[in-house]
Amino acid sequence: MRTTHAHPIAAALAGLALLATLSGCAGSTAARSDAAAGGPAAPVPAAAGAAAADEKAASTSEGTAYAAPGASERQLARTAKLTLVIPDPAKAAKELRGVAEGLGGYLLNENVVTEQKDGYYVEPSTVTVAVPGTKLDDALDALSKIGEVRNRNVGSVDVTTDMVDLEARIASLRASIARVQGLMDKAGTITEIAQVEKELTSRQSELESMLSKQKALAGRVAMAPVTVTLRPPSVVIQDPNPLWQGLTAGWAGLLQSLRMLLTIAGALLPFVVLGVLIWLPIRVWRRRRRPNAPGLLASVLAPATVDAEDVPAAKPLDAPRDRPTTVDG
């Protein structure tokens, strides 16, 4: 019993692995690989083929939930950018949200700057909304009425090929999962069951990844993001007065000089305090060490005293002689 089932199950799993690799190229190639894998290596019973067909039909009906396109339809992922000049960004942002919600959309991102300087907003504001792709033109017309339009840009990316490819790969992978589930009934040993479960888990993970990509692409087609930049009115710049400009520059220079002086004083203050703390103890110590120094210094500097007896008497000065007077005759 063990020898009878080991070889067909292993061969069937190898054929399914090759089939999963080839099914990514195209749906028709995957169908031919399925037929080849079910031939000489491991014949697939009719019940498994019927289950695969039922699974494929079910996958087609489930794929309609994401609006999977046909080969003749064009699927466009559209985006738009709009620049408006408005006096009040908060009020304009509220109106933008109202327009988007009225068309069946919603708010994605909002950055409203209300800070002002000299009566003007310092930075522009941005609001991003999502609207249905089929109503993008109507949304742009309605948004343009909120302010003065300065720029309007609309772009689109064709994702038809990606969506059709994903649809074909998902259908083929679901059919492959159905065949692996059919092999589970034929597995008779623990080794065979483990191999089949490993292949089944791998295919289910790949299927979930593809379904996520398909849903993301469908969302890009269904909803179009619109980024609106809200700018304040332009400021008229006048030529500055030379006198006022000179006074402003001089005042700024004076303040800068004062700041520099204060900075230097602040930097030197710790060193001054440290020097005073070191100098005061030294001064006190020197005074205590030489208490008689001031008296000695005074005695040295005092003028010498001499007794009166030792000083010789001064000689009297000769009286001036009288000069003869002459009288003119």
Brief synopsis:
This protein is an alpha+beta fold and 329 residues long.
List keywords for this structure.
five-stranded mixed beta sheet, Alpha-Beta Plaits, 9 helices, disordered N terminus, 3 domains, membrane, 329 residues, flat, DUF4349, single chain
Report on this model:
With 329 residues, the chain is of the alpha+beta class. It has three domains: 2-70 and 161-219, no CATH class; 76-159 and 226-231, Alpha-Beta Plaits (2-Layer Sandwich); 245-286. The protein contains nine helices and seven strands; from the N terminus they run αααβαββββαβααβαα. The chain has helices at residues 2-22, 27-37, 46-63, 89-102, 136-144, 160-186, 190-222, 242-289, 293-301, and strands at residues 76-85, 106-111, 116-117, 120-121, 125-132, 148-158, 223-231. The chain has a five-stranded mixed sheet with strand order 2-5-7-1-6. It is flat, with a radius of gyration of 52 Å. It comes from Propioniciclava tarda. This is DUF4349 domain-containing protein. Residues 1-26 form the signal peptide.
